[in-house]
Fold these 2 entries.
Entry 1:
Amino acid sequence: MTARRPLDTATSLHTAAGLLTAVSLLVTFRTGVEEGAVALAFGTLVAVGELTLPRCGPGSTAGGPGLRETAPLGAAGALSYALLGEHAGHPSHHGVAQTVSVVATASLLGSVPHLARGQGPVLDHLVRRVLAVGFAAVCFQPLYHHGAFDHGRGPAHALVLLALLVLTVLCDAVVAAALAHSRTGWPFPPLLRDELRAVPGIGSAVCATGAVMALAVAVVGLWALPVFSVPLLLTQLSLRRYAAVRATYRQTIASLARATEIAGYTPAGHARRVAALSQAVGRDLGLPEAELTVLEYAALMHDIGQLSLVDPVPAGATSGLTAAEQRRIALLGGAVVRQTGAGAQVAAVVERQADPYPEQPVAARIVRVVNAYDEKVQGAGPGGPLTALEELRLGTGGEYAPEVVEALARVLSRDCLTLPKAG
């Protein structure tokens, strides 16, 4: 039962978004489109926003850590249409169904190139967009059409729009964290915390622009859309460029980390395995995205100090060396990392991975445990994972941080149900 809950959550959200879209389209086809020019203008804005999403590979999150809303122009346009009460001084008549239909159709059309290239979790992105717009429209449109804002134009109206947008963004953060939890199996609380941390950044820009667009279109008409879209479009293009720079930088770090493999100091794929497993352990322990990035880079480069050795360590297994030799290699590795420009935090983790664990930062504790696990498990036969984990548990008295070892056991148990439970 427990193993199926994430899938059930994702299925429920996908089903809810699908049903909302289907019902909205049926109602819109039956009643017809109100203010077709306005619907076309906002739909075009949303589609353009989706088209300029940052490129990312399959299975990755668009934009990477910290870039929670990767299509701010599309989000702002969709939300402003949901909160649009008037057009050039004339009351609008589109309701919840038309709002969802226009936004869903435009988002899908704008996402076609990304779907064709298999770029990232586009379906989850569409689900978020539909549910967020549906929530905002349900909150605003019935109130507006029943005259709730007839005597509240001006500052009060703007504050109501901002409040609804903030509430919508917060709900979207919960949905995004739930979908990420379903897709990856990572713990929900850290994912939600990271989503909420991103709200004051790009989320505040989306909220402000969405509110201003709705108010401006109500006064001056559709001419307000291109004027207020330019800042967010430039921001979105900057996010796209930043995502490309991050991807290139990570590829550079990964290529540098392979130097020890090419030189024969470590087994093939060791750095990638340690990096991937370290990130999984870090997420289980609740590390924020910024620390997870540092952890990934440090794990990729944790063995770079072995290049200083005259004779390679058999199978690159530094965990069997003396504490003094491990520290020497770690310090040399940290010095190399500092020269690469990877950052002082990454270098510090590499330097301190051989220190006594009570003195280590969390990232260094994780790298130490995961590195030892990967070294012990390689070539150990079918019982390798079980044996390696038990050896790590036996070493928690002095070498390895107990909480990290147990987090590793939890991560492994999610992938292999034959592993013993902690304790």
Entry 2:
Amino acid sequence: MDLVIWILIVSLFIFSFIGLLYPIIPSVLLLWGAIALYYFFIDGDSLSFWTWGSLLVLTILIFLADYMASMYFIKKYGASKKGMTAATVGLIIGSFVIPPIGIFIVPFILVLLTELSQQHPFKRSCKIAIGTLLGFLTSTFAKGLIQLVLIIIFLSDVFILH
């Protein structure tokens, strides 16, 4: 039975990374689902207070990294509120259109068109679209790195510390 649970745990960890490229997949929930499987079906008492605290802090950091990276580039490159909305819609649509590169192309095009429709010059609109793309890439990299650290802490507590 433990083997089946571990296969599910590893699968959830893998899907959490896929969720970085498919924003409709809730990466953080998949990570916590894997931890919950371990807790409820294998050995819930073995995880230390330090591990729980670290997992909680890292989860908060994932959300902060997503928000801060996106906002930094959006503000730096001067995207409008409509441009920010276009980027979000583009990520969702891009997840389904020519995946996985659609999450890069569709938001870029939608932001570019949105900024152009607001009478911004082409050069400025391109700069904003590129900035939005850089924000997504930076955010995705940061979230992936934090997810990896979260998984390493969890697995270290399970296999090394006990």
